[in-house]
């Protein structure tokens, strides 16, 4: 009986994944910038949250979750720690969290990406799937932001211009 070894080729490096994610974050930042301040905090359609609330959610997930993954310690999800009052508050915190993401992402080894992690005590998936969830959630909410901007008569940034 003979055996055949299968070589698994890597689709994407961790550096490429981070670059992809940060590209999405760059675009979402530009969506935040496109909003008039009042509308950022007040405008909504169909009972959806204003975009400032969606941005606060994204800020409250990514950095804290990566820190929890690296430290193998994850508490419950909360947005209580960040209550922005201005667009400037959101953009400043967005930029700070970008650095937090870079810092903690670089500490995740290739092997850790395959380990199961219970995100916020709710979602038990491999680390790489948790990170893809962060990206998916951001894209979803950014789509809401695009809808708001168009309803306000504002042309949103092109979705393919992520850098």
From TrEMBL:
UniProt cross-references to InterPro entries, sorted A to Z = DinB, DinB/YfiT-like
| UniProt key word Metal-binding | yes
List residues binding a divalent metal cation: 141
Q: Which Pfam families match?
A: DinB
Q: Does the keyword Metal-binding apply?
A: yes
- Sorted alphabetically, which Gene3D superfamilies does this protein's record hold? dinb family like domain (1.20.120.450)
MF terms (GO), sorted A to Z: metal ion binding
Q: Which UniProt keywords apply?
A: Metal-binding
- Family affiliation: Belongs to the DinB family.
Protein name, please?
A: Uncharacterized damage-inducible protein DinB (Forms a four-helix bundle)
**What organism is the protein native to?**
Chryseobacterium polytrichastri
